[in-house]
Amino acid sequence: MPENSWPENDSYNVPDSLHDLLMEVSELSDSEVVPLYPSGEHRRRKAALVLALIWSSTLALHVYVGGFWLILGLTMVMGVHSLRLLIARPPKLPASLSWQHPDPDVPRVSLLVAAKNEAAVIGALVKALCELDYPRDRYELWLIDDNSSDQTPTILDDLAKQYSQLRVLHRTAKDQGGKSGALNQVLPLTQGDIIGVFDADAQVPPDLLRRVVPFFSEAQLGAVQVRKAITNYRTNFWTQGQATEMALDTFFQQQRIAIGGIGELRGNGQFVRRQALEACGGWNEATITDDLDLTLRLHLNQWDIDFLPLPPVQEEGVTYFSALWHQRNRWAEGGYQRYLDYWPLMARNRLGPQKTFDLVMFWITQYGLPTAAVPDLLLALVRQQVPLLAPVTSLTLALSFLGMLAGLNRIRRSQKLPFRPLSLVIQALQGTVYMMHWFLVVASMTTRVAIRPKRLKWVKTMHQGEQDAQWLAE
Protein backbone atom coordinates (compact mmCIF):
# COMPACT_ATOMS: atom_id res chain seq x y z
CA MET A 1 0.00 0.00 0.00
CA PRO A 2 1.15 3.57 -0.64
CA GLU A 3 2.37 5.49 2.34
CA ASN A 4 -0.14 7.67 4.16
CA SER A 5 0.72 11.33 4.37
CA TRP A 6 -0.62 14.22 6.40
CA PRO A 7 0.53 17.67 7.53
CA GLU A 8 2.63 17.70 10.65
CA ASN A 9 3.43 20.93 12.47
CA ASP A 10 6.36 20.28 14.76
CA SER A 11 7.42 23.81 15.71
CA TYR A 12 6.12 24.89 19.11
CA ASN A 13 6.98 26.12 22.56
CA VAL A 14 5.64 24.42 25.65
CA PRO A 15 3.52 27.25 27.16
CA ASP A 16 1.75 27.93 23.84
CA SER A 17 1.23 24.25 23.15
CA LEU A 18 -0.35 23.66 26.56
CA HIS A 19 -2.63 26.66 26.09
CA ASP A 20 -3.65 25.53 22.59
CA LEU A 21 -4.35 21.97 23.72
CA LEU A 22 -6.54 23.14 26.58
CA MET A 23 -8.40 25.48 24.22
CA GLU A 24 -9.36 22.50 22.04
CA VAL A 25 -11.85 21.39 24.70
CA SER A 26 -13.69 24.72 24.86
CA GLU A 27 -13.89 25.05 21.08
CA LEU A 28 -15.84 21.79 20.55
CA SER A 29 -19.60 21.48 20.77
CA ASP A 30 -21.23 18.50 22.50
CA SER A 31 -23.44 17.96 19.45
CA GLU A 32 -20.64 18.30 16.91
CA VAL A 33 -20.06 15.32 14.66
CA VAL A 34 -16.55 13.93 15.09
CA PRO A 35 -14.28 15.42 12.39
CA LEU A 36 -14.44 13.42 9.18
CA TYR A 37 -10.71 13.35 8.53
CA PRO A 38 -8.62 14.68 11.41
CA SER A 39 -5.53 16.24 9.87
CA GLY A 40 -3.17 14.75 12.42
CA GLU A 41 -1.62 18.17 13.04
CA HIS A 42 0.37 18.79 16.21
CA ARG A 43 0.57 15.10 17.15
CA ARG A 44 4.26 15.45 17.94
CA ARG A 45 3.56 18.40 20.18
CA LYS A 46 0.79 16.57 22.00
CA ALA A 47 2.90 13.43 22.33
CA ALA A 48 5.78 15.46 23.80
CA LEU A 49 3.44 17.05 26.33
CA VAL A 50 1.97 13.69 27.35
CA LEU A 51 5.44 12.17 27.68
CA ALA A 52 6.59 15.08 29.82
CA LEU A 53 3.52 14.78 32.05
CA ILE A 54 3.97 11.03 32.54
CA TRP A 55 7.68 11.25 33.28
CA SER A 56 7.34 14.27 35.60
CA SER A 57 4.39 12.67 37.42
CA THR A 58 6.44 9.50 37.94
CA LEU A 59 9.30 11.59 39.36
CA ALA A 60 6.90 13.50 41.61
CA LEU A 61 5.44 10.25 42.96
CA HIS A 62 8.94 9.05 43.86
CA VAL A 63 9.75 12.30 45.63
CA TYR A 64 6.36 12.78 47.30
CA VAL A 65 6.17 10.90 50.60
CA GLY A 66 2.61 9.77 49.89
CA GLY A 67 3.35 8.59 46.37
CA PHE A 68 3.15 4.91 47.28
CA TRP A 69 -0.32 5.37 48.76
CA LEU A 70 -1.52 7.13 45.62
CA ILE A 71 -0.28 4.20 43.54
CA LEU A 72 -1.92 1.79 45.96
CA GLY A 73 -5.19 3.71 45.62
CA LEU A 74 -4.95 3.55 41.82
CA THR A 75 -4.26 -0.17 42.06
CA MET A 76 -7.39 -0.66 44.17
CA VAL A 77 -9.55 1.24 41.66
CA MET A 78 -8.09 -0.76 38.80
CA GLY A 79 -8.53 -3.93 40.84
CA VAL A 80 -12.25 -3.31 41.24
CA HIS A 81 -12.53 -2.66 37.51
CA SER A 82 -10.53 -5.83 36.80
CA LEU A 83 -12.82 -7.86 39.04
CA ARG A 84 -15.86 -6.55 37.16
CA LEU A 85 -14.21 -7.60 33.91
CA LEU A 86 -13.44 -11.09 35.18
CA ILE A 87 -16.91 -11.89 36.55
CA ALA A 88 -19.08 -10.21 33.89
CA ARG A 89 -21.26 -12.44 31.74
CA PRO A 90 -21.12 -11.71 28.01
CA PRO A 91 -24.51 -11.00 26.42
CA LYS A 92 -26.24 -13.80 24.57
CA LEU A 93 -25.43 -13.93 20.87
CA PRO A 94 -28.26 -13.48 18.35
CA ALA A 95 -29.43 -16.61 16.55
CA SER A 96 -27.91 -17.36 13.17
CA LEU A 97 -30.04 -16.78 10.07
CA SER A 98 -31.80 -19.92 8.91
CA TRP A 99 -32.48 -20.74 5.27
CA GLN A 100 -35.36 -23.10 6.02
CA HIS A 101 -37.63 -20.09 5.52
CA PRO A 102 -35.38 -17.64 3.65
CA ASP A 103 -36.16 -13.94 3.93
CA PRO A 104 -35.89 -12.26 0.51
CA ASP A 105 -35.20 -8.94 2.22
CA VAL A 106 -32.08 -9.87 4.19
CA PRO A 107 -29.66 -6.92 4.31
CA ARG A 108 -27.34 -6.33 1.39
CA VAL A 109 -23.70 -6.81 2.28
CA SER A 110 -20.63 -5.40 0.53
CA LEU A 111 -17.33 -7.15 1.26
CA LEU A 112 -14.13 -5.17 0.68
CA VAL A 113 -10.51 -6.30 0.45
CA ALA A 114 -7.58 -3.95 -0.23
CA ALA A 115 -4.66 -5.99 -1.59
CA LYS A 116 -1.11 -5.20 -2.64
CA ASN A 117 1.21 -7.95 -3.90
CA GLU A 118 -0.94 -10.74 -2.47
CA ALA A 119 -0.67 -13.28 -5.31
CA ALA A 120 0.08 -16.08 -2.84
CA VAL A 121 -3.23 -15.82 -0.99
CA ILE A 122 -5.73 -13.74 -2.95
CA GLY A 123 -7.16 -16.59 -5.03
CA ALA A 124 -8.15 -18.66 -2.00
CA LEU A 125 -9.77 -15.65 -0.34
CA VAL A 126 -11.83 -14.73 -3.41
CA LYS A 127 -13.04 -18.31 -3.75
CA ALA A 128 -14.08 -18.46 -0.09
CA LEU A 129 -15.86 -15.09 -0.16
CA CYS A 130 -17.70 -15.88 -3.40
CA GLU A 131 -19.03 -19.16 -2.00
CA LEU A 132 -20.51 -17.89 1.28
CA ASP A 133 -23.78 -19.36 2.48
CA TYR A 134 -25.79 -16.21 1.76
CA PRO A 135 -28.11 -15.27 -1.14
CA ARG A 136 -25.89 -14.46 -4.13
CA ASP A 137 -28.01 -11.45 -5.11
CA ARG A 138 -27.71 -9.96 -1.61
CA TYR A 139 -23.94 -9.57 -1.33
CA GLU A 140 -21.06 -8.35 -3.46
CA LEU A 141 -17.28 -8.56 -3.24
CA TRP A 142 -14.95 -5.70 -4.13
CA LEU A 143 -11.21 -6.36 -4.48
CA ILE A 144 -9.05 -3.24 -4.60
CA ASP A 145 -5.71 -3.88 -6.26
CA ASP A 146 -3.55 -1.22 -4.63
CA ASN A 147 -0.98 -0.79 -7.42
CA SER A 148 0.46 -4.29 -7.07
CA SER A 149 3.70 -5.16 -8.85
CA ASP A 150 3.25 -8.96 -8.78
CA GLN A 151 0.57 -11.15 -10.41
CA THR A 152 -2.24 -9.90 -8.16
CA PRO A 153 -3.92 -7.74 -10.88
CA THR A 154 -3.91 -10.58 -13.42
CA ILE A 155 -5.24 -13.09 -10.91
CA LEU A 156 -8.07 -10.77 -9.90
CA ASP A 157 -9.08 -10.01 -13.50
CA ASP A 158 -9.23 -13.75 -14.26
CA LEU A 159 -11.27 -14.43 -11.12
CA ALA A 160 -13.74 -11.66 -12.03
CA LYS A 161 -14.67 -13.69 -15.11
CA GLN A 162 -15.51 -16.70 -12.93
CA TYR A 163 -17.54 -15.10 -10.12
CA SER A 164 -20.51 -12.82 -10.73
CA GLN A 165 -20.23 -11.20 -7.26
CA LEU A 166 -16.63 -10.10 -7.78
CA ARG A 167 -15.78 -6.53 -8.77
CA VAL A 168 -12.17 -5.36 -9.18
CA LEU A 169 -10.86 -1.82 -8.83
CA HIS A 170 -7.26 -1.12 -9.85
CA ARG A 171 -5.42 1.76 -8.18
CA THR A 172 -2.37 3.51 -9.55
CA ALA A 173 0.74 4.98 -7.96
CA LYS A 174 -1.00 8.38 -7.95
CA ASP A 175 -3.73 7.16 -5.61
CA GLN A 176 -2.89 8.02 -2.01
CA GLY A 177 -4.26 7.25 1.44
CA GLY A 178 -3.06 3.68 1.89
CA LYS A 179 -5.68 1.13 2.90
CA SER A 180 -8.05 3.87 4.08
CA GLY A 181 -7.75 5.61 0.72
CA ALA A 182 -8.47 2.36 -1.13
CA LEU A 183 -11.57 1.65 0.97
CA ASN A 184 -12.85 5.22 0.64
CA GLN A 185 -12.36 5.11 -3.12
CA VAL A 186 -14.52 2.03 -3.56
CA LEU A 187 -17.18 2.85 -0.94
CA PRO A 188 -19.36 5.04 -3.26
CA LEU A 189 -19.49 2.14 -5.74
CA THR A 190 -20.89 -0.34 -3.21
CA GLN A 191 -24.56 -1.07 -2.54
CA GLY A 192 -24.48 -2.89 0.79
CA ASP A 193 -26.29 -1.82 3.96
CA ILE A 194 -23.45 -3.54 5.83
CA ILE A 195 -19.79 -3.15 4.85
CA GLY A 196 -17.39 -5.99 5.66
CA VAL A 197 -13.60 -5.60 5.49
CA PHE A 198 -11.03 -8.40 5.27
CA ASP A 199 -7.27 -8.68 4.90
CA ALA A 200 -5.93 -10.57 1.90
CA ASP A 201 -4.76 -13.54 4.00
CA ALA A 202 -8.13 -14.06 5.68
CA GLN A 203 -9.69 -17.51 5.84
CA VAL A 204 -13.45 -17.14 6.11
CA PRO A 205 -16.01 -19.79 7.17
CA PRO A 206 -19.01 -20.27 4.83
CA ASP A 207 -21.66 -19.34 7.42
CA LEU A 208 -20.02 -16.09 8.54
CA LEU A 209 -22.62 -13.70 7.08
CA ARG A 210 -25.49 -15.73 8.55
CA ARG A 211 -23.81 -15.28 11.94
CA VAL A 212 -22.96 -11.58 11.61
CA VAL A 213 -26.04 -10.05 9.96
CA PRO A 214 -28.48 -10.72 12.88
CA PHE A 215 -26.40 -8.44 15.13
CA PHE A 216 -27.50 -5.45 13.06
CA SER A 217 -31.13 -5.80 14.10
CA GLU A 218 -30.09 -3.60 17.02
CA ALA A 219 -30.65 -0.04 15.82
CA GLN A 220 -27.79 1.46 17.83
CA LEU A 221 -25.22 -1.11 16.71
CA GLY A 222 -22.63 0.47 14.44
CA ALA A 223 -20.24 -2.43 13.88
CA VAL A 224 -19.33 -6.04 14.67
CA GLN A 225 -15.84 -7.46 14.99
CA VAL A 226 -15.32 -11.17 14.35
CA ARG A 227 -12.79 -13.04 16.46
CA LYS A 228 -9.41 -13.47 14.80
CA ALA A 229 -7.36 -16.66 15.02
CA ILE A 230 -3.84 -17.55 13.89
CA THR A 231 -3.57 -20.25 11.21
CA ASN A 232 0.16 -21.01 11.51
CA TYR A 233 0.24 -21.43 15.29
CA ARG A 234 2.74 -24.30 15.36
CA THR A 235 5.51 -22.41 13.54
CA ASN A 236 7.42 -21.00 16.52
CA PHE A 237 7.27 -19.07 19.80
CA TRP A 238 6.12 -15.86 18.09
CA THR A 239 3.15 -17.39 16.29
CA GLN A 240 2.14 -19.30 19.43
CA GLY A 241 2.26 -16.02 21.32
CA GLN A 242 0.08 -14.30 18.75
CA ALA A 243 -2.48 -17.10 18.95
CA THR A 244 -2.68 -16.71 22.73
CA GLU A 245 -2.82 -12.92 22.31
CA MET A 246 -5.90 -13.35 20.09
CA ALA A 247 -7.52 -15.47 22.81
CA LEU A 248 -6.79 -12.71 25.33
CA ASP A 249 -8.29 -10.11 22.99
CA THR A 250 -11.39 -12.29 22.61
CA PHE A 251 -11.88 -12.38 26.37
CA PHE A 252 -11.36 -8.66 26.90
CA GLN A 253 -13.58 -7.71 23.97
CA GLN A 254 -16.49 -9.73 25.33
CA GLN A 255 -15.98 -8.62 28.93
CA ARG A 256 -15.57 -4.92 28.15
CA ILE A 257 -18.77 -4.96 26.09
CA ALA A 258 -20.56 -6.85 28.89
CA ILE A 259 -19.88 -4.06 31.43
CA GLY A 260 -20.85 -1.28 29.01
CA GLY A 261 -17.30 -0.50 27.90
CA ILE A 262 -15.63 -0.15 24.51
CA GLY A 263 -15.86 -2.82 21.82
CA GLU A 264 -13.09 -2.42 19.24
CA LEU A 265 -12.50 -3.14 15.57
CA ARG A 266 -9.51 -5.19 14.49
CA GLY A 267 -9.43 -4.56 10.72
CA ASN A 268 -9.67 -8.11 9.45
CA GLY A 269 -13.23 -9.45 9.84
CA GLN A 270 -14.90 -6.16 10.73
CA PHE A 271 -18.45 -5.29 9.66
CA VAL A 272 -19.78 -1.72 9.80
CA ARG A 273 -23.28 -0.39 9.28
CA ARG A 274 -23.19 1.84 6.21
CA GLN A 275 -25.22 4.55 7.93
CA ALA A 276 -22.73 4.67 10.82
CA LEU A 277 -19.71 4.62 8.51
CA GLU A 278 -21.00 7.49 6.39
CA ALA A 279 -21.95 9.48 9.48
CA CYS A 280 -18.32 9.19 10.60
CA GLY A 281 -17.04 10.25 7.18
CA GLY A 282 -15.63 6.92 6.06
CA TRP A 283 -12.11 5.76 6.86
CA ASN A 284 -9.55 8.25 8.16
CA GLU A 285 -6.68 8.64 5.69
CA ALA A 286 -4.59 10.52 8.26
CA THR A 287 -3.96 7.52 10.47
CA ILE A 288 -1.89 4.35 10.20
CA THR A 289 -4.53 2.12 11.85
CA ASP A 290 -7.87 2.78 10.19
CA ASP A 291 -9.70 0.21 12.36
CA LEU A 292 -8.66 1.68 15.73
CA ASP A 293 -9.42 5.22 14.56
CA LEU A 294 -12.87 4.21 13.28
CA THR A 295 -13.54 2.42 16.57
CA LEU A 296 -13.26 5.62 18.54
CA ARG A 297 -15.17 7.75 16.03
CA LEU A 298 -18.07 5.29 16.07
CA HIS A 299 -18.28 5.38 19.86
CA LEU A 300 -17.90 9.17 19.93
CA ASN A 301 -20.86 9.37 17.55
CA GLN A 302 -22.92 7.18 19.91
CA TRP A 303 -22.69 3.89 18.00
CA ASP A 304 -21.93 0.59 19.74
CA ILE A 305 -19.58 -2.19 18.59
CA ASP A 306 -20.31 -5.86 19.30
CA PHE A 307 -18.16 -8.97 19.02
CA LEU A 308 -18.69 -12.39 17.40
CA PRO A 309 -16.49 -15.07 19.01
CA LEU A 310 -17.52 -17.95 16.73
CA PRO A 311 -16.75 -18.74 13.98
CA PRO A 312 -13.40 -16.95 13.72
CA VAL A 313 -11.71 -15.32 10.75
CA GLN A 314 -8.26 -16.83 10.49
CA GLU A 315 -5.09 -15.04 9.42
CA GLU A 316 -1.35 -15.68 9.29
CA GLY A 317 0.82 -14.64 12.19
CA VAL A 318 4.21 -13.07 11.53
CA THR A 319 6.97 -15.62 12.04
CA TYR A 320 9.98 -13.62 13.22
CA PHE A 321 10.61 -10.89 15.76
CA SER A 322 11.59 -8.06 13.41
CA ALA A 323 8.28 -8.41 11.54
CA LEU A 324 6.41 -8.53 14.85
CA TRP A 325 8.26 -5.42 16.02
CA HIS A 326 7.29 -3.42 12.91
CA GLN A 327 3.69 -4.62 13.06
CA ARG A 328 3.21 -3.92 16.76
CA ASN A 329 4.86 -0.51 16.49
CA ARG A 330 2.33 0.41 13.82
CA TRP A 331 -0.53 -0.87 15.96
CA ALA A 332 0.77 0.94 19.04
CA GLU A 333 1.33 4.23 17.25
CA GLY A 334 -2.03 4.09 15.48
CA GLY A 335 -3.82 3.40 18.74
CA TYR A 336 -1.92 6.22 20.43
CA GLN A 337 -2.78 8.65 17.63
CA ARG A 338 -6.50 8.36 18.28
CA TYR A 339 -6.06 9.53 21.88
CA LEU A 340 -4.00 12.49 20.68
CA ASP A 341 -6.60 13.34 18.01
CA TYR A 342 -9.85 12.92 19.94
CA TRP A 343 -8.94 13.65 23.57
CA PRO A 344 -11.00 16.89 23.70
CA LEU A 345 -14.19 14.99 22.93
CA MET A 346 -13.29 12.29 25.45
CA ALA A 347 -12.57 14.99 28.05
CA ARG A 348 -16.08 16.35 27.49
CA ASN A 349 -17.52 12.91 28.32
CA ARG A 350 -18.78 12.47 24.76
CA LEU A 351 -18.52 8.70 25.26
CA GLY A 352 -20.59 8.64 28.44
CA PRO A 353 -19.32 7.71 31.93
CA GLN A 354 -19.08 3.92 31.48
CA LYS A 355 -17.21 3.97 28.18
CA THR A 356 -15.00 6.85 29.31
CA PHE A 357 -13.97 5.05 32.51
CA ASP A 358 -13.33 1.82 30.59
CA LEU A 359 -11.21 3.69 28.05
CA VAL A 360 -9.18 5.42 30.79
CA MET A 361 -8.46 2.09 32.50
CA PHE A 362 -7.50 0.58 29.16
CA TRP A 363 -5.20 3.53 28.34
CA ILE A 364 -3.43 3.23 31.69
CA THR A 365 -2.59 -0.45 31.20
CA GLN A 366 -1.87 -0.25 27.47
CA TYR A 367 0.01 3.06 27.21
CA GLY A 368 0.39 4.87 30.52
CA LEU A 369 2.03 2.06 32.50
CA PRO A 370 4.60 1.01 29.84
CA THR A 371 5.56 4.65 29.29
CA ALA A 372 5.96 5.36 33.01
CA ALA A 373 7.89 2.11 33.56
CA VAL A 374 11.08 3.60 32.09
CA PRO A 375 11.54 6.51 34.54
CA ASP A 376 10.11 4.40 37.36
CA LEU A 377 12.72 1.68 36.84
CA LEU A 378 15.57 4.19 36.52
CA LEU A 379 14.54 6.03 39.68
CA ALA A 380 14.13 2.74 41.54
CA LEU A 381 17.68 1.72 40.60
CA VAL A 382 19.08 5.08 41.68
CA ARG A 383 17.16 5.01 44.98
CA GLN A 384 17.83 1.27 45.44
CA GLN A 385 14.21 0.40 46.06
CA VAL A 386 11.37 -1.57 44.49
CA PRO A 387 9.76 0.22 41.49
CA LEU A 388 6.92 2.40 42.71
CA LEU A 389 4.58 1.09 40.01
CA ALA A 390 5.10 -2.54 41.04
CA PRO A 391 1.52 -2.94 42.42
CA VAL A 392 -0.06 -1.69 39.17
CA THR A 393 2.33 -3.75 37.06
CA SER A 394 1.62 -6.89 39.09
CA LEU A 395 -2.13 -6.35 38.75
CA THR A 396 -1.80 -5.85 34.99
CA LEU A 397 0.24 -9.04 34.54
CA ALA A 398 -2.17 -11.02 36.72
CA LEU A 399 -5.17 -9.75 34.74
CA SER A 400 -3.42 -10.61 31.49
CA PHE A 401 -2.66 -14.15 32.69
CA LEU A 402 -6.20 -14.76 33.94
CA GLY A 403 -7.64 -13.26 30.76
CA MET A 404 -5.54 -15.61 28.66
CA LEU A 405 -6.69 -18.60 30.70
CA ALA A 406 -10.33 -17.60 30.36
CA GLY A 407 -10.01 -16.77 26.66
CA LEU A 408 -8.23 -20.04 25.86
CA ASN A 409 -10.83 -21.99 27.82
CA ARG A 410 -13.72 -20.34 25.95
CA ILE A 411 -12.17 -21.22 22.62
CA ARG A 412 -11.59 -24.77 23.82
CA ARG A 413 -15.24 -25.12 24.81
CA SER A 414 -16.48 -23.59 21.55
CA GLN A 415 -14.44 -26.17 19.63
CA LYS A 416 -15.64 -28.97 21.96
CA LEU A 417 -12.06 -29.93 22.80
CA PRO A 418 -11.07 -31.93 25.90
CA PHE A 419 -10.30 -29.95 29.04
CA ARG A 420 -6.56 -30.03 29.75
CA PRO A 421 -5.84 -27.52 32.54
CA LEU A 422 -2.07 -27.99 32.57
CA SER A 423 -1.88 -27.28 28.83
CA LEU A 424 -3.97 -24.11 29.28
CA VAL A 425 -1.77 -22.88 32.14
CA ILE A 426 1.41 -23.49 30.12
CA GLN A 427 -0.03 -21.63 27.12
CA ALA A 428 -1.11 -18.73 29.33
CA LEU A 429 2.32 -18.51 31.01
CA GLN A 430 4.05 -18.59 27.64
CA GLY A 431 1.64 -15.94 26.37
CA THR A 432 2.37 -13.72 29.38
CA VAL A 433 6.09 -13.90 28.65
CA TYR A 434 5.38 -13.15 24.98
CA MET A 435 3.24 -10.11 25.87
CA MET A 436 6.18 -8.48 27.66
CA HIS A 437 7.29 -7.22 24.24
CA TRP A 438 4.41 -4.73 24.42
CA PHE A 439 6.15 -2.82 27.23
CA LEU A 440 9.21 -2.34 25.00
CA VAL A 441 7.12 -1.40 21.98
CA VAL A 442 5.04 1.24 23.79
CA ALA A 443 7.93 2.69 25.81
CA SER A 444 10.01 3.22 22.67
CA MET A 445 7.06 4.38 20.53
CA THR A 446 5.82 7.07 22.94
CA THR A 447 9.34 8.46 23.21
CA ARG A 448 9.96 8.31 19.48
CA VAL A 449 6.76 10.08 18.40
CA ALA A 450 7.37 12.82 20.98
CA ILE A 451 10.93 13.56 19.86
CA ARG A 452 11.52 12.59 16.23
CA PRO A 453 9.86 14.23 13.22
CA LYS A 454 7.20 12.06 11.65
CA ARG A 455 8.61 9.47 9.25
CA LEU A 456 5.96 7.05 8.07
CA LYS A 457 7.55 3.81 7.00
CA TRP A 458 5.27 1.05 5.78
CA VAL A 459 6.65 -2.46 6.10
CA LYS A 460 4.62 -5.08 4.27
CA THR A 461 3.62 -8.23 6.14
CA MET A 462 4.35 -11.07 3.74
CA HIS A 463 1.65 -13.74 3.41
CA GLN A 464 2.44 -17.29 2.36
CA GLY A 465 -0.94 -18.98 2.68
CA GLU A 466 0.15 -21.07 5.68
CA GLN A 467 -2.45 -23.08 7.58
CA ASP A 468 -2.53 -24.78 10.96
CA ALA A 469 -5.98 -25.71 12.22
CA GLN A 470 -7.14 -26.84 15.67
CA TRP A 471 -4.12 -25.40 17.46
CA LEU A 472 -5.71 -25.80 20.89
CA ALA A 473 -6.12 -29.53 20.42
CA GLU A 474 -2.57 -30.32 21.44
Automatic annotation (TrEMBL):
| Cofactor(s) needed | Mg(2+)
Name the residues that span the membrane.
Answer: 47-64, 388-408, 428-451
Under the heading Gene3D superfamilies, the entry gives:
Spore Coat Polysaccharide Biosynthesis Protein SpsA, Chain A (3.90.550.10)
SUPFAM superfamilies to which the protein is assigned, alphabetical: Nucleotide-diphospho-sugar transferases
Q: What EC number(s) does this enzyme carry?
A: 2.4.1.336
Q: Which domain of life is it from?
A: Bacteria
Question: What's the top EC group for this one?
Answer: transferase
Q: Its membrane topology, per UniProt?
A: Multi-pass membrane protein
Record keywords, A-Z? Carbohydrate metabolism, Glycerol metabolism, Glycosyltransferase, Lipid biosynthesis, Lipid metabolism, Magnesium, Membrane, Transferase, Transmembrane, Transmembrane helix
Xref: PANTHER family = CELLULOSE SYNTHASE CATALYTIC SUBUNIT A [UDP-FORMING] (PTHR43867)
Official protein name in the record: Beta-monoglucosyldiacylglycerol synthase
What is the protein's species of origin?
Petrachloros mirabilis ULC683
What taxonomic classification does the UniProt entry list for its organism? Bacteria, Bacillati, Cyanobacteriota, Cyanophyceae, Synechococcales
